[in-house]
## 1
Amino acid sequence: MKSRYNRVPEGILIYRLDTATQMVSLMSEPHSKTETDKLVREMVVAAARPSPDKTRRGMILTGVDGTTMTLVACEQRTAIAWLEAIDLMLANRLRMGDKIEKSQNTGWHKKNLSGRELDQIEGQYLNLASYSNKLIRANKKNKKAAAASGIYYNIEMPQDPADEFEEEALESIAKRRAVIKDSWDFYRMICSLLRDRRKYNEVFRKLQLDPVYPYLHSMTGLSDPGDAGYENTDKEVIQKDLDRYLSMTRTQVAEDLCKQAEIAMPSLVEICKALAGSLGMEEVGIGPVKEVQAALKKAEKKYDGDLLKITDFCRALLVVKDLPTLLALLELARDSFGPLIRRVKLSSLKSDHKPLPGGYRHCIINVELKEHICEIQVHLWPMWLVCGVDGFRHYRHCVEYNTDSFENAYDALEGLDRKTMAELIVMAEEAVAETPLDSLEWFQEKFILDYFAEVGLFMKHGLYVWAEITLRHLVRLRTESPDIGPDHHETILLYKYLEEVLRLTGKDKEANEIKKRIKDNDKRLKKEKDAAEKSMWDMVMAAPTEALDMILDPNKKEREEEEKLRKEVKASKKQWRMIRKERFGFLDANSGGMSVATGSVDEKKVDEDGPKALAL
């Protein structure tokens, strides 16, 4: 065996862990610079724990005689596999009988499993770890990457020389890995969805600081269902129920609605072109017309099968720069093609209403063109930036997996057994194999999310030292990022998890310092909000008579909130008028509305003399 390691590079020693005998043995020869007086050649292991090594590759082993040694593995996954194997080994009462005192604090020991059960779990775990390691090494070779350290990580399972390793066994391992890989991908997706939800919430928090927001908040939409939710069977604005639908199948009705949408599409294009030309949109998107099967599926999911409640067969999206541009768009739409508008949904943009599943907020305008209800989605640029065109995928996944039912992504791990948790950590290490923690950079978002997800596994699995090391590194990366920084909500979230881990490891002093930092950040956010409100109140209180009215109001206490809201809206509307005059003066210059070729919009509502702007 030792002859296999006679050409090990300087600075590397090969140790072998035999879980059958609890023995760790040196397999390679010392080097010229090895301190042989401190070298441990053999140890019967009685305890093991992660070391605070910043590379997250260190382990501290304690022998039955009290001797300790620290091993730093070549790779993260090596240290993880060793510690899990040792934990299983020390929990097995059948190993070495009562001759060796077992550690009573291991995670597996608390499960009170039989020796046979632990043997089976250990075998399955090591087979998976070995299989994953081989895939990583094969991938490195395909990429022609340096894989020198990888050759020193190997797992061997005892076999009868007379028996061949059956293909069925390898197939079983591959199937198990596929199941665990799917579980890891799902868990990581939940982490991603909740991360984006936090981003949406932060964007909305900042939008509420805009001086025109109280004015927008005071506006009432048209046929707005409010918090009706994803499933809205009582939707007011619906497609026309034509007589011919009585003799049609549901599929034929969907096909007919798609044809109507095709006819209405040119008119919707004209409207969007006119809006974009007047206001200067960040992005504009038209269509495509919803497909028949997609419509049938949506009707079944949202409207109890009612196809007439689908109002986005013909759809478009407009992305406006900010809230003032949204207000200008609403005014322009009202003055230009008001009689065609059937619904204006603003509720998700209001702080006292729920956002869409996943945290998104936008405005929807439904117009009737060619006797068909079409939809214009109006997105705010800061919201749009979070996911871009993938925003609908985010929304769909949040609906499908009901992610709004929990706040913490790590809650997705609740109920998983210890074996599955250990296997998920193997998959996490496979995901980050090409980017070790100590080489991770602030701009590598994909791997930062992988490591964040792995922290949750460490915390649930009791590997608090490695959770702490990873969190500290992620905090440093977020602090270094020019787009994030130390006070960003992502950094603060990492601090919250770090505080929790520090308390679990008894580091209360540092945990208290982090708690104070978190509280200071909360105070900063409140100060921002108060400053925004004060700037509006300053405008209101500039009028002495209004201030006197407030002082002399005998019912001030009872009416305080109502009065405050009224004053805020008044000040906000004043701000909007100033911005409107400065940026959107054409709204007054062309009070009749924008020029829209209404002949292509709805011939029933247009003067036959030619193109004309419509107004309410």
## 2
Amino acid sequence: GISGGGWGGQGELMSDTNHHPTWSGSGSSGAWSPTVEATASTFPRPITLPPEQRRKGLLLYVLQPDTAPELREGLAEVIARYSERFVPPTGEGAGTAMPITFHRYSSSTAGDRGGSSGGEDFEKDNTDASGGSSRGGGDRQHRNQHHRGGGRKVKCVVDSTGALRVYFSHRADAFRALGRLMVAAHNAPFGTKPGAQAALASGMQFEETPWLEFMGVQLDCSRGGVPHVAALQDWAVQLSLYGFNALLLYMEDVYEVQGETFFGYMRGRYSKAELAQVGRVAAAVGVEVIPAIQALGHLEQILHWPANDKYRDTPNVLLVGEEDGHDLLERMMAAATEPLGARRIHLGLDETFGLGQGRYREKRCGTKKKIGCGPTPEASLIYEEHVQRVLDIARGLGLRPAIYTDMIFRFGGGGAGTAGGDGKGDGEAAYRDPSVLLKPDTIARVNAALGEEGLDLVYWDYSSSNKDEYIAQLQRHEPLVSGNNTADGQRGLMMSLGLWTWNRFWAALHWAMATMEAGVAAAQEAGVPGIYVTAW
């Protein structure tokens, strides 16, 4: 419904006109102005159908959001990209459209009670235009027995005149409601005239209480083509209309780092100004942009340059325990987060196979292993020491870090080269087998390395279609989630599921849907408050 041509929807839904960079609106708030980049939107242009063949539906008229001024820029971005769905902010043709106003729940709102920040009395709207109560029942109570959703909720009320009032608690939820209204308006029967009955018949009155606090998509900006800035902005806007509140940008080397000439060299890296442009549009529609970098493995694009020999352990793993590497990581974290205004960062730390088997060993035993040199420390110990240092760096920059957990279980379960640092095996069995539990001494060491400050642990699994398998794996994380906490919520647990886009031109949807449906069901049952899907 929202998608339009090229994103999986019907081509005629998209406008065949260019986005307008400015609008003049009435009201005390002045004109709305979408960003200049909206005129360079990369939404694919569909085949234009004759007007008589286009689906018309109902138009929407977003009134100047004086009751929720924080939405003004984001609404302009949406309307610029979907101008055929809206009456322009000047109000021309408003009599043929469904008017919408937005109202934020007040801080004193409890459950469904309370007012809006714009002075509107929310309690007056608890009885909808159809005469029935819009308060939630058993279904919502069932959803909330698992999660509070971070206090997220949204409600759209149709009044007797047909006007739509959206009440929201978070900016992202306001745009989720708008996306739902856009679909409902578009799917309204032919010839439908605006009004209360049309709105009710089209499903424009609803209430949602999301059980997920964090719902995101991670785009791979490092393998294959580097997405244009306008494409990332379009993604952010579209994701907001579907209810997502996070966009992770996976960037191994495609961003500027002070003093590092070969970061993203000849690869289309993002400048600081470009990342700032992405962050600005995403923030306007309630989407948090989180840089996802690598702080140990998967760094072959950086380490293959001779100028970066000093950072290299193996061809794709950073040399740990060196101040040069620590300085590089600090500059990487700052460079990735500052332009976006990000408060969180994903540090990766996954699939660090061969850790300690290259220059790390050479520096301790010489180029050729000397008699009596003995083994290097077990890879698990090397890894834990590095994790502690990396997390300290991130927290020193005021960031909440996230890390993948696969290597904790691969190393800690006896795989991935733990036996004297011999580098044999990848620990797959230890990672996949839920019966292989971490030993108490390993749990104590890992908890000490993870520290007592805020941290998100990310369990990734793209291959299982069995809910119970996911739940069993999530339960293995409990000693780490609850360990060393100084306060509730210091450590969080998230799930990363896969869109199955790797090694193919399109998503393998049969696998993607099977694994994601099982994973989401497991997350809800296990009480995991955050999920994101990866498009590697």
## 3
Amino acid sequence: HHHHHHHPHPPPLTNPRSPRSALPPMPSLTSTASGSLRHTPQDLPRRPPLDNLLSTDLLPPRGAVVQSGGFMAQKTDKMLRADDADARWAAVEHLKATREDTQAEHADSVAQLLKDDDELVQWNAAEMLGNMGEVAGGYAGDLAALLSHTNKDLRKVAAKALGRMGPAGGQFAEQIAGLLTSDDASMRVTAVQALGHLGPFASPAAPHVAQCLSDNDHHVRYAALESLWNLGPEALISQIPAMISLLSHTDSQIRWVGMELLKRMGPGAESEAERVAQLLDSDDADVRLAAVEVLAAIGQGGGTNQQHIRRITALLQDSNTKVRWAVVKATKSWDGGQCKAHLEDVVQLLGHEEPPVRRVAAEVMSWIVLHLGMTDIKAITNVLLTDKVQGETVRNILEPLKKTVQMPNLSTQQSNLAAKFTAALLPHPDVNVRQLGLEVLCRVAAVAVAGVGDAIAACLRDPDARVRTAAVSALEQPASVEKRHMEVLKTLMNDQDTVVRCAAANSLRRIQHPASDRYFSSHHSYSSHSHNNHHYGSSIGSTFMGSGIGSSKRSALSSPSSGTLALPLVAHSRNGWS
């Protein structure tokens, strides 16, 4: 976008031959050199619109093909050398809108204008050469001369133009970096962005860019982050120590910049993992948090070297909530070997005296379980069934599993591990653990692990009605049902609890007549209950000590049953009723 489009045009001129006199007075560009007025390029004083300056016979129409050395080309050259500064400015402005080959043809004459005595003409010439990009690389030296000009806008436009010139601009990276000492944040942003555009060609200036990561202006910091990233891997690796030092900065936004860069580098920053790990011992929780997140992102190798993981795992006991949960997140990247290595530590923490520590240890355990072997599972469940670990902690392990087992990317082996683990916990003395375990098993895809069906069937005889109901729906998974379980299911048809009786009846029907499932749920359950609605309500009411629940519960039970989903809902809601 050319800058004269940014503002409404001044009133048309009465006398196109003497444009300056007729225009409202413009601020002179030189007055800004002292820095008294803060100028961004949009604020540059503007020339009047082209149409007022040039009658069309003077220049070729925009977009015209100008024959080399032809009549039009001579005219353009003549205009670029006109005595009137406005005409020179307008000629450049006009060229900016012509084809690239036309521009290249006049580039020499335009480059001469970089030394013009009118600053606006210089500015426009620099912008045009910048727009031409690498093609105009031969003029990089002339542009670089403007980097030390007294006028701030000229310094800016020269830096921007050099930033687009690739290898040619890269030779002047150090000079562009010289602008980073400016007091004006917009100047620093322009210089940093120019270096970023040069990419690897500007890598020698990486230390200067890295210094801007902790600039006091957030625009500069963000520009520096993006630019340093663009300078390429070698430049980045050379600046890792600078990024790590930002992690312990007092300003949270500056810490974020360091974290963001290191996280983006990921395994690329492995060589310096040890330096990050030292920050795990910091007294400042925010610094510990940054270190955990960065080490997790560095990932395999450096970040997960056993010793680091041990130190990270120890932070599950951190006094700061954010740090503890960051550790939980970090453990999700562990592989089987790492899970096994830290099993002991996590099991120990499950019996910790502080509830928040037990809580995060349980969360980690629910993830680790999916990456172990069957023998480890047995060892863990043996501990969980003792009174060393509270029922609430076991529930906190099972609760996340309920979501995890439904993840599409779970392997069959992981499903089986989850089933084995959960089934082994079904003899737990806490009713809520048994019920939750059965809810997890309802959600595990077809399980092919010996003994799971028997463990569920054992719950059909549970003293608690909620557990019996949950067991009925868990048993309905095709892989778990066996003949001998059917016998127990039939005995539940005479259960003292109405909900259990209903669940068992529905379940048997679905197991025996899977095809008629749709027919039953659409006709049978509604019609049968609509007749004896009153009676049904009263019988449930009496079961639940006359708590006056009537027909609202009918809807929960007789909802068209879709597989096993309707039943766990009952199990849930009964928690609330009893």
## 4
Amino acid sequence: MEADDRTGRTGEGVVALPAEVWARVLNYCSFSDILASSVAETMILKEALPLITEITIDCAPEMNLTVANRFRDVTAININSLYSLEEEVDYKDTNVNYETQVRMVPFLSRFPQLERVTFGGKDESGVKIEHYWPLDGHFYESEESFPDEGCKERALALIDSLTIGFKSGGLPRNLQLFGLVCPESKNTTEGPTHCSVCRRAASSFPLECVSSFESRGSSIAQARTGRPYSFDCCLGRSEIEEILKERPGGEEILARKGRFIELLGRGRRYAIKPDDESKVLYVVKYEQQHLQELARVANTTGVDLLKLPCEEVSDTILKSFVDSRGIVPTPEQCHLSALSVESLINELKLPVVVAKLQNQPPSQQFEEHYAFVVKQIQLENSEFEDITVDCLVMLREVMTVPPSPDDQASTAILVKSLVTLLDRGSDYVEQAAGVLQVVLAGSQTNINTAVEQGLIKKCVQKIPSSNMVLKKSSLALLATVLTQNQPDHVKALADDESVQKLVQALDSSNSHEIISNAAMILNSIASADKADELASSIRVNKSAIMSKIRSVMLLDKCKAQSIP
């Protein structure tokens, strides 16, 4: 049935959609559905297909050159058939589809209006993987020759074919490529590289595209966030820029002031959702590598950071919360890492007005979310590794009472995770110890779990530390454990080495907190039945110990700590 151009009605009076409306609808359909619709309706074939602006390829045979000529106005193509992830218990492999590889460049060359191509990936069942990153898997090599070469060789051959496409004029000069990686990108960490494939790409891809190249696995931050990322090559940042400088117009691209603002709006966004019933909490953090790149770009472009408008800086930072579809979460769901705010102000000297960031303080409604991230450290390669400290800080701020005993299994995992974190740096230890003190308070079950995980031994080892944070945190935890007066816990401390460390901490410190906790622990040891010899040793030194306590602390604060 043909529709009347003016009324949009067919001869029988049935309303028919104009070609423009069909084109908009078909933008969201799979390519196979678009083709099926065009076969069923002549108007779609002749009038709607030329108006479609975006298509998605799910399998290689869909990249048909004859069909491509029908799509006049396409500006964006999503290709989900290039990469696939094969996953087993002990390995992950990234496969590169041979047919997609060889069909791609000729197919793309048929779209004169093409502006962007995005590569996605599928799992073994053929389902598209959200937030896919090809470098999650290993690109295996093979000694076989074409067409039976390994996926690493296929990936490199694809990059070279795109290079040839740009050099020959077959691909538009303003084309942006997203989701493409060099298989060696994650394996090259420092120094110059000898990858000729990436060097040819940097010398031939469009200037705008090259200026936004990711480097040596840096694209993971964008991939995990669900944002598009440019080609991740194995060249270092300085190597990419040196190649750009040698190309006509390269110097101007590197000096473009907008590069810094664009980079500032790409902080890494983490989506935390403990279960299907929970609201999503979004945490944005600027990782150290990102901060270094911001500093480098500011230096390269000559941007005076102190002169940037505060409003523009704040608005740009907040763009990091926007997802790939442009959806902005509610303010209560957004939290900008306090550590990142500190780095942006103190390291980069950005004119950040904290109040204008509308940053939400830690909330008890997200206590479960913070704990969820902390518990993830029990998993290998946790995706939340870089915000563990941030979530510890927030959890410590909102957790004022121990977790409910109704969910003891979950609490046990939290306790184990917190004790594990005591083996890390002082920033982890201080926050983990603070949360542990709340979790352990009044709960013999939680204390037993912590002791079984080696809490006492870990704390004793840190008592002699010159780092006051480690010393204070360790003594505070030991004091919390001994409040239950469990003989087994006291006996675990009743050895010459532990007592010597405690006495030394007491004798060498002027800190009220350290002296109070050390004295309380020594008191518990001295009172233990099995610790007769150690108790006698402590009593012999009672006068010196009490003298030290009285010289630093008020007497009324020491009465509870007096040693028998």
